[in-house]
Amino acid sequence: MALKSFFRFVACFCGLYFSATSFVSAIPIVTIKGSKFFTTDGEQFYIKGITYQASTFDGNALTKSAQCEIDAQLIKELGANVIRVYSVDPTLNHDACMSSFEKRGIYLLLDMPTPFASISRNEPKWTTELRNLYAQVIDGFSKYDNLLGFFAGNEVVNDESNTGAAAYVRAVIADMKAYQNLQGHRKVPIGYSAANNANLRKLQQDYFNCGNEKSAADFFSSNVYSWCGTSDFVKSGYETLYREADGYSMPIFLSETGCLSNSSTLNSPFRDFADQRVLLGRDMNDRYSGNIMYEWSLGDNGYGIVSYSQASATGTPRKLGDYSRLKDMWATLTPAGVKSSHYDPTLTRRACPTSAKSWLVDPRATLPTVGLDGFATPTAPRYTSTQIRSTASESATSNTGGGQNEPAGVNSRSSETPAASSTDSKSGLSSAVIAGIVLGVLIGIGLILGVVLLFIHRRKRGKQESLAPGDDLHDPFSDKMPVAASDIPSGCYAELPNPTMQTNELAGQERSAELPVRSTTGGESISLASQAPEQSPDAQIPVPVEDSPYVQAQRKTEMQWLEEEENKLRQRRELLMKQTGRA
């Protein structure tokens, strides 16, 4: 019976081992291969997303831990696997909220710009101040395994007159990729979200894909609201979207979509989401990697799918009809795609668009990068979601109610960083360290017990072999029974999968010729000039271009804010004039 007990112990140990490893393992990281997203376990990843931020200047996104727990569960039940957040305050702690979404299998696409810190389309500038702010966002979020990617800009170009601003967005990508390398961060994909201008969309796709990989976008997306009401694949322009996405060496998806039909009203929006059958179905899912629906919470523009009773968007929201309709639609759409191991792309980068009246970027000019002067290479190791999960759970426990915010680095359990935990013995051990200790103890006990039982088993077998043929092999003084080889369990001895993470590479057997790239330190720039022959953009019928609902709402809020500030200044001026007797 000793060997049976031993093997029962082994089975128990294997169960504990796999339970512990599943506890410390992180969500699969999403990487890029060719024109597709893949998880590190080799599955193609399709975006079913929702924008998760009110159309206001809320810098506290992803900091209200109690609210994130509520919303993350509802977003999971919706069937979404991605949220898009338009701006964050990188000085605050986001561990608890990111953990809430991670444990429900939800990834984040994050805009680096904010309403007050972004590339202006009419007077574009890329400065060291902007660079430092964007670098803070990268520092604050690269540690999260459920971070899918960064947006370097949103609808910066929306008209032929401001196409020159595209070079500044590409400079952002170049400097931020260089910063990732300098700091030893995971190579989180950096891409662009374009306005839906039919005359410029293809030009922008080519521009952000062409030239040197160090400044090219890792993915390209558009904000498209052309499928309205009872539209279809052709009338909506989706057929053109599909045709124009052929052969790119980067993933393409819709970063905003979800047109309100004429039957929609502010208090009762109605969308049937028929476009999802096309985007996630066979019509488009071989070239498009999904889409992000606009938007989560109901605002003045009427696009939300849930409604909060509180102006602060806290508490459990009421599900609107669009929530149920989108949930039901997504439940029927589960594209499998292709396995990463079966996908061997031979894609090349596009030729850069030539300078013309409709495209003001000279492909031979250098990018207006600012370089990495002032940044130092870190000496401490970088941390990921696995190592911060225990900190996040503590933060979620202590931060309840409306969700108070604390700047990262404050000496409290809710804002404690992994680096602080490793240097302060009073801070406690991370879940990964604790699990490692438990596994080490279990392995040690298993080895010791195995040696003892094996020794006893061999002594018993020696006695059995000394008996004459036909003698009873059972020792009346022992409860130990011989164990046949077929009774030995083998399932726990299977080779474990290699957990090595892959980094983001736009791989392909064929690559376009790489042009010389000057160092990104010291403010030098990167050349985009392509050796491919010049080509003129396809002639298209001009169509009126309208900013996306988010940009419109953002502009409205900005105007309200400016009016309030002007009123304050006017009142202050009148008061000063009275005090000086000049009234």
From TrEMBL:
- Highest taxon of source: Eukaryota
Task: Tell me which Pfam families the record gives.
Answer: Glyco_hydro_72 (PF03198), Podoplanin (PF05808)
Cellular component terms per the entry's GO annotation: plasma membrane; side of membrane
**Annotated localization:** Cell membrane
Stored InterPro entries: GH (IPR017853), Glucanosyltransferase (IPR004886)
How does this protein lie in the membrane?
Lipid-anchor; GPI-anchor
Name this polypeptide is given:
1,3-beta-glucanosyltransferase
Q: Which organism is it from?
A: Dendryphion nanum
